[in-house]
Design a protein that fits this description.
With about 160 residues, the protein is mostly helical. The chain has 2 domains: about 55 residues; about 60 residues, no CATH class. About 75% of the residues lie in helices and about 0% in strands. It starts with a helix and ends with a helix.
Length: about 160
């Protein structure tokens, strides 16, 4: 199949609008939880469309490379991106702080905070080959069982 601008351009344009709009909704915490899924999934599709866009427009892009405009743009975007990452590590979001404290808290206290029953969780985990008998924290559960942390959390919270 030959790449065709008639398909790529509308897709990349519309996906750009949805990813941009969902990013703004996330920034202002509107429809939290719903916009994240749209943003992440369509963001992945946007990257695929962008690759096709670059392939289709490679000859024109080479002209911009020769003019030297890509290097300063790349350095600017890289600098801003690194600054965001550094700032995020210096002042992590509240939800990450809470989650980290829950997974490192004594397991009985963590289960109380999550409003789950120890016996029910233990049984649900055991059915999935995960055991909590020696665990002092939720983090210990996945470390001791060499299990996926997300799977353990999902089983504990019954999602």
């Amino acid at each position: 199949m030959k790449l065709n601008r008639n398909y790529i351009t509308p897709f990349i344009s519309l996906v750009f609008l949805v990813v941009g709009f969902s990013g703004l909704l996330m920034l202002f915490h509107l429809f939290d939880g719903y916009t994240e899924v749209v943003h992440e999934c369509l963001g992945t599709f946007f990257v695929i469309c962008a690759i096709f866009h670059v392939i289709l427009n490679w000859q024109a892009l080479k002209i911009h490379f020769k003019k030297g405009v890509f290097l300063p743009a790349m350095l600017g975007v890289l600098t801003i991106s690194i600054a965001f990452v550094v700032l995020e590590t210096m002042r992590p979001p509240v939800d990450m702080i809470i989650i980290n404290r829950i997974i490192k808290a004594p397991i009985d206290d963590a289960f109380k905070a999550l409003e789950v029953d120890y016996a029910e969780v233990s049984e649900r985990l055991k059915i999935n080959g995960i055991f909590i008998e020696r665990a002092k924290t939720i983090e210990d559960v996945w470390v001791n069982n060499n299990a996926d942390p997300e799977k353990v959390i999902d089983l504990i919270t019954n999602h």
